[in-house]
Amino acid sequence: MADLRKTQKQVSTALIALGVLSLVAAVVLLSPLVGSAESRRSELTLLSNELRVKTHEVVTPARH
To answer: Residues 4-59: pLDDT tens digits?
Structure first.
């Protein structure tokens, strides 16, 4: 009978942990910290343009 109680306690602990993990995932998903798809897309475009400019500066020799 002790094994059954031990197993029940382990299953309960696992279910509580999964519940907490699900709650955290839902908060992160619905959080404004993640941002919208449009804001992520515009940020990616901005960073891509910045990378292109900096790469061009490094590749192109400076004229003195």
So the answer is: 999 999 999 999 999 999 999 988 887 776 677 788 789 889 999 999 999 988 88
Please state, in angstroms and rounded to a whole number, the distance separating the CA atoms of residues 60 and 54: 10
CB 28 within 8 A of CB 34: yes
Q: How far is CA 54 from CA 19, 43, 45, 62, 64, in A?
A: 46, 16, 14, 13, 19
Can you give the pTM of this predicted structure?
0.48
Alpha-helical regions (H) of the chain: 2-30, 37-59
Calculated CA dihedral for residues 57, 59, 60, 64, nearest 10 degrees: 80
Do the beta carbons of residue 48 and residue 42 sit within 8 Å? no
